[in-house]
């Protein structure tokens, strides 16, 4: 009984810390830092602005080429200093011929499809500008995003600057849209505090930039290229800054099935990343960066979903010993879990019946996220996750 109670409290503390406690602790630490160090709100504008390469990896992006190029050419950055580079990896839908119609685009194409990171590895030796900005073909950038990104490099200790990913929210959004939008709002807040405390923990692939000289070739089977690239730069002693004024906008996943497919891939890539970045687990060597990395990423991708699974039978046994009908603490925790998962089930049922109750989409999306981690773990150990990615369908 005592052993079971100790296990229960270990599981509960890990769960609460991962999803709530770290955010609270991070906020407190940031507040303390602000009291000790007076924050300088003066924005330093680089003058003159440096040359920048906007690198857009693509596979069969015919539907987005014109939209992306229209958005790119409308960006508020000197046209003579913005080099537009597309690298198309095995595209066969006419993406290349469409890009051939733009005389300001440098196109790198190879017929063989080998995945996004292979395309990036192939083109990076040709990038000669001091800063390279990565962006996806299916996202639109805020008009001043490149300027905001570039100005993040006014500090020599900054090696990477991440923009904000924004999800288009509509009143008719599915569970995927409502859940994904809420998740990214919370993530953006954590990233902002992480960066203010010391360094953001990873960059959003939709929009991030690095000092070109810091890029090192990444393993060809890497799934989360943006995460590995940015964290390896941080491991070199540089900071990852986060600027929500630089943002990329994209639609939410079309439905939960598409979102689950995307999350499973991310989770498999997360496990792969934790293994490849295992040196960052050394708090004695990397200090605050390790603390942030473990708290914000490692726990979510490893033991916390397992804790969520284990605490159900553990709390049930403890509650049963005291009688399931009384109001003991273990009973309350057990029935709260049951209520939560029933709400997730109801959210799934309503989603399939095209009924929109967004309050129920939160537990449903949370459940899907953690289910994806478990499925992603088995996909990773089974070596069943291809580096090639079929893009999830997005809401229109």
Description of the molecule:
With 396 residues, the protein is α/β, with parallel strands linked by helices. The protein has one domain (1-38, 139-396). The chain is 52% helix and 14% strand. It is built from 13 helices and eight strands. It has helices spanning 2-36, 65-73, 95-99, 116-123, 145-151, 175-197, 225-235, 256-276, 283-286, 288-301, 303-322, 329-352, 358-381, and strands spanning 52-58, 82-89, 105-110, 131-135, 140-141, 158-168, 207-211, 239-251. The protein has an eight-stranded mixed β-sheet. Helix 11 crosses helix 12. The longest helix is centred in the N-terminal third of the chain and has 35 residues, at 2-36. The radius of gyration is 22 Å and the shape is globular. 40% of the residues are buried. The model has no long low-confidence stretch (mean pLDDT 87).
